[in-house]
């Protein structure tokens, strides 16, 4: 897998274009999330990466944070159907338009803040991350879920 970076303008614009093609009735190739839930999930992950409080982290996840970070930052794709943090599990009642707008807003804010801000944020599980790690993981996570919905 090529290491793309969310903070590269071409990559950022391509991601926005993919999100724009996402529709409320898109069905996933794997997993149980709807398109609305996926947008909410991705927005929540991005918000936490940018300083939002993460609550309910099991003790063993905190203990294994370094090991989990190595897996997340690696070039190996995320496995389909992998468990996620409880805060990232989204209920069935979210609205598509609202969550798509939320995702786009958080991505615009992240991109506008730039690499310097990304390198300053300490992830609540992974700890310190370089701006390049942050940009790579943001791209990798979004690509994983946009691919899940064929966009």
Would you mind describing this structure in some detail?
The model has no long low-confidence stretch (mean pLDDT 93). The protein is built from six helices and two strands, in the order αααααββα. It has helices spanning 9-20, 35-49, 59-63, 65-73, 96-120, 131-148, and strands at 122-123, 127-128. The chain has one domain. The chain has a two-stranded antiparallel sheet with strand order 1-2. α2 (35-49) runs parallel beside α5 (96-120) and α5 (96-120) runs antiparallel to α6 (131-148). With 151 residues, it is mainly alpha-helical. It starts with 8 loop residues before the first helix and ends with a helix.
Shape estimate: globular
- Could you state the oligomeric state of the chains shown? single chain
Sketch the major β-sheet.
2 strands, antiparallel
Instruction: Quote the average pLDDT.
Output: 93
> What's the arrangement of strands in the largest beta sheet?
1-2
Number of domains: 1
Global structural class = mainly alpha
User: How far apart are the termini?
Assistant: 18 Å
Radius of gyration of CA atoms, rounded to a whole number: 15 Å
Number of strands: 2
In DSSP terms, counting alpha (H) and pi (I) runs of 4 or more, how many helices? 6
Strand content: under 5%
Share of residues in helices: 55-70%
Return the string of H and E elements. Answer: HHHHHEEH
Low-confidence stretches: none
Can you describe this structure in just a few lines?
The protein is an all-alpha fold and about 150 residues long. It has 6 helices and 2 strands.
């Amino acid at each position: 897998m090529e290491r793309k970076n969310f903070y590269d303008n071409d990559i950022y614009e391509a991601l926005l274009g993919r999100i724009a093609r996402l529709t409320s009735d898109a069905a996933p190739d794997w997993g149980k999330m709807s398109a609305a839930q996926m947008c909410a999930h991705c927005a929540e992950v991005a918000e936490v990466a940018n300083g939002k409080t993460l609550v309910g982290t099991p003790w063993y996840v905190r203990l294994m944070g370094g090991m989990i970070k190595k897996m997340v930052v690696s070039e190996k794709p995320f496995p389909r159907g992998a468990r996620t943090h409880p805060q990232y599990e989204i209920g069935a009642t979210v609205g598509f338009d609202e969550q798509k707008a939320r995702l786009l807003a958080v991505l615009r804010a992240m991109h506008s803040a730039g690499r310097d801000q990304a390198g300053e944020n300490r992830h609540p599980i992974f700890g310190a991350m370089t701006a390049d790690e942050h940009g790579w993981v943001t791209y990798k996570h979004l690509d994983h879920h946009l691919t899940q919905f064929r966009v």
